[in-house]
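Posting for a labmate who doesn't have an account.
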Amino acid sequence: MGSVRNISLRQLQAFSAVARLGSFTKAASALHTTQPALSVQISQLEDALGLKLFDRTTRTVGITRVGQELLPRAERTLAELNGIVTSATGLGTRSTGRVLVAALPSVASSLLPEAISGLRREFPGIAVVLTDALGERIIELVKAHEVDFGISGFPPAEARLLFSPLGSDEMVAVSLPTGAFAKAHRTTPAELASHPLVLMSRDSSVRRIVEEAFAAAGQLTAPVHEPTYMSTAIAMVRAGLGIAILPSSASEVRAASDLVCHRIASPIMGRRIGILSTRRDLSPAAEAFRKHLKALAKKWFWGTTIGARRGPILSRKGAPP
């Protein structure tokens, strides 16, 4: 018996065509080849298998019993190979694929849904699996290759990750539209320190930025509440429990039209948001999503980036300062 390594895709296609059409002439025509070439392929397959697949006469071609038993298996193999080729073609042309992404909660609830929806319209066969996580966890997932890339703030130098900027936003003070503080369009860490503060949990990148800015201004942070979710922080502000310091691009902040947002006079009260990865050669699907994110981010962060707009970035009440 011959080796399976000697069996080719063309031989299996020839076997299936002759068996289904009952004729070497018709099979050769269907496969766009010559009858002698087709006969050679069948003979080579029979030699490789050590089996007789067809009974031939000058007028008829009949499949043998063993050929009948092998035909369904051969055609399943052909179908699987065709599926592999189709999948590979789809992956290469970005028409199919799966992208695993980890993103900061503020980005996952704002930029990402719109980005995923836009990608789906352009490439319906690409699926995006999104995990929202805090900064340190995102770095872990990227370094462990559990996601294609992450979306977070600029990583620590020791992380040794590639960082491709998407945009920047700044921390803003969110308050009720009542009281003396609400009339100010700008504030400072020193002024904020004299008010009850609602700050994000200590393991969040937002909290780290706020604490560094307060420390640079010679102020300590003593929050009255430390929620994990920005929606909780917004609810606490509405309940009069304090002033929250949150990123201006967060969807929770943008949607809080009943509250007032104030710029904070601090050169480091901001963050750069970008794509974290361990390598440049992303899969075609991941690369398609990366390019889509980059294009969308130009619009998304416009007006919330530091220095992107003149005047008050967010104050919804009153005139510019």
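Reply:
Got it, the structure tokens are right above this. Residues 303-321 have pLDDT under 50 and may be disordered.
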